Structure formats: C-alpha cells, structure tokens
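Case study 2.
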Amino acid sequence: MKPNNSIISDPLVAYDPYYERFRRHVFTLLFIGYTHARNKNLDLAVAEEDDITDHIVKGIEEYKKDLYSPAWVENYAIEQQRPHSSHGEIGDRRKWLDIFFQGNRREQNNTFCFEAKRLYPGQKPKRYFGQKGMQQFLLREYPTNPKGEAVMLGYVQSHDIQYWLQWLKTHFENFRADLHISTDSSWDDFPIILQLPYSFRTQHVPLSDIPVVLFHVLLSFVGDGSTVR
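Prediction:
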C-alpha cells in the first residue's frame, strides 16, 4: 500500500515542517488501520467501540512490522487504552485514552490523542460533545499535544456519513457556548490526507484561555465504507 500523503496546509496556523510530517504520518497510519479493519469482513456495524479500535490498532501494528512498509513507520509508537493521570490519579481512577500516538525521534517528539465514539441509532449528542467526549480535551482531562491538538473519531454504524455529518454540525452549533468555540470558528472541512476526506476541524478557547484544536474524522463501518479510496 502506497498512501497518498498530500496535505492541505492550514493558512491560519504556522506549523513547522517536522510537525506537519508527524501529523500527516499519524493520519496515514490511521487510514491504514481503518482499511485493515474494513478488510476483516466482520460486521463492525454492530461492534463495540473498543473492538473496532482494537482492529484499527492491530492493523497499524501489522503494517509497522511489514518489511515492505516505509522506513518512517519505525518512528511512531501507538498505544490503545493508555492510562493517563490528569490530576495525579492512580490505579483504576486514571483515565484511559482510546488511541495514543507518539513520535520517538527527537525532531518528531510529539503526541496525538484520539477519543473514539460510536455513531449509531439512539446516540445522544452529549455522548459525543459532553464530558465523556469532546469536553475531556477542553477540561484538560485528556491531553492535547504541544500544538494544542487532538482527534475525535466517529465510528459510523448506521445510515451514512452524510447523515451523521449533518447531525454533528447541528449539535455543534447548539453546543457552541458549552464547547467554548472560537467566535470565528465553524465546522471546517480539513482533510489531512486525501484518503480520509471526511475530516474536519473545530477551534476552541476553553476557560484556561489556551487554544484547543480538535480534528473530527468519520469512519464508515456500514455498506461499502465510503471513506475508503
């Protein structure tokens, strides 16, 4: 597999070239893990969130071990259900991060935290936007990276991506105040790589006055998987 690593540059934020490469590679690995999960021919439209995440992470790990994979994959470590203490918690009181990427070279010593949510019949908006979803990043319960960025993954398990995209946009506008959305921010199209076209960006300024940028990536597990290209 030779993914197209084309990136859409952000005119509002000046990124250094090392970080741009880090971010692009992380999203490329996400796409590879997603493709692996889809190719398992499992009925992931009814799977639990952790099971889907497990298939994605295992696909990335297999790709990293493949002798034909590009050399850069060795520069990235990935963890599933990584323990995290935001206020010094220990044991079972710690938070558990769904997916956590880390660069292990000096020039790419960066991180990316992913929080995954199922999008299925009966899903409540607060499950995605509330204190068990996006708010975890805004309240500093989950870590953002040094650029203030993190990722929300939406596992589409019913209808289609367009249905859930409209659902998310509508509730995003309804929760603007609670989510501390920047005045000039909206639900922006922001595909990091071409293979994940349903990727979006929102910008927030929580009470800490430290900007937070969240990417939202929708992955379909129904039908033919319309995010696979």
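Residues 17-220 form one domain.
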